[in-house]
Amino acid sequence: MTLCFAALIKVLKICSKPKVYNKTLCGAVAKTIDEYYGNILEADDGTISHLLSCDYNLSPENIVEPAKTIAFSKISKGMTTYVLPLLDTDKLPLGILALRSMALSSVTESDAVIGQMKRSTLEAISVFDPADFLANIFLYTAVAVENKSGKDTINLVDQSFVEGFEAQRASIRLEADAIIEPVELDRTLKDSDFDAVFRKVQCDDDLNLKNKSGLNLYYLDISDSAFDYMALNEYLFDSVGMYVYSRTQMKEFEDKKKVRNMGAKALRLMKANGKPDEKGTGNELGEMLLFAFLEDGLHAPKLLSKVEISTTARQFSSKSDCVHLLKRKVNGEISYQLVFGASCINGNFESAIDSAFEVLAAIKNRRVRERQMVDSTLFNHTYDDDTTKWLHQILVPSKTRQAAPDMAFGVFVGYSIDVEADDNDAFRTECIKRMESDIKAAIPYIEQKVSDLNLGMHSYYFYFLPFNNAEVDKKLIMDELLLGGVD
Fold first, then answer.
1. Span 3-12, pLDDT tens digits
2. pLDDT computed for residue 135 by the predictor
3. Of 161, 176, 191, which residue is a domain's last?
4. Last residue of a domain, one of 176, 203, 230
5. Reduced to 3 states, what is the DSSP secondary structure of residue 269?
6. Which pTM does this prediction carry?
7. Considering only Cβ atoms within 10 Å of each terminal Cβ, which end of the chain, N or C, has fewer?
8. Claim to verify: residue 298 and residue 202 sit in the same structural domain
């Protein structure tokens, strides 16, 4: 039985909610690549009829060619947004089993790919992320096979075929790959005002890398046609104690009922450690913001901030701006990533990306030394006994440890945005457009850097934040924090 686009839609229709039509499903699937074309296709009854009878192939211009270059993550997100809401969750496992059966019978070589998944992997797995699975199946039907090739077998794809997999229902489990909040290690910024200070720009584009990655764009409040830093200044002041001190030290402040003193003493320590905006001391704005975004944006608890690395772990001469721990569930299994950080604030975002990647390459080249820094520092009275034992089980090789944590990278990029508009509303609108344009331009640039530096085996979590004048503003903000605005 041939797996083609028509077969995919027929299976989805059998597994759909009541009153969901073929044209709705065709349009929804097409929207994962091109929303505009998906809307057009949804209204074209004639084309839908010919596609489902395998008389027509998919549009080369609108589907086939874009599918060859589009980021997989965008298609997966589109499945979550447009397709999965149309399906009956009780019937979905049967549909996945049916589509997997067709895929395995259509592709015979074990190393052959179905979308971006090897046939051997598809045959072996029992836990499916529905969005990723459907994205792989759709990619295969769009790129690897013509829709017309299913003409001889399309009539075999019916309700009895799909329902025939009922006996195998228990053999698989549906579970989205997800980042999990580790109950064993709380975030230090768990109750912060992050969402009130940083506004997220929603964008469909994402990095097309081998390992799941994230691209995030935020901006600050806009007032009088400029970014307003007042809320950011307060956020940094409120967060400085959590940034500087380990959890054990914070607990000591709490036990001694001197929590109010923690921020002031943290600022005193930072002043002793170096000047405002001095590279490598922990006193750079980018280093502080990377800590905040990885904790509050990514939900990856801090292991070491730049201040801790530059003081407690000074002997290792680490290149990292921070280290965080990310807990994930992938294909039903818990896994961990050690997220090593790099940050740069520069007027030009490409220059900032270049500088960040210089740090990432250095971290990768020193990965043994960087891991030694993490292990040595963490197990030297940084945590309470229970937390230390839990981290030991994750980080230290043993017979019971399932897999070593992967090295991942967290990157903060601050840059200047050039928008001119005296009208505040117009300025906000133009800022959003410019930021979206900047991100679209950054994606291929980042992907090329990853390729050039042979760093494709890692996950990346990028955070972008525009400034009015990045080079000037970053110094003023840190002066405000450390010196109270006094030169």
1. 999 999 999 9
2. 96
3. 176
4. 176
5. helix
6. 0.83
7. C
8. yes
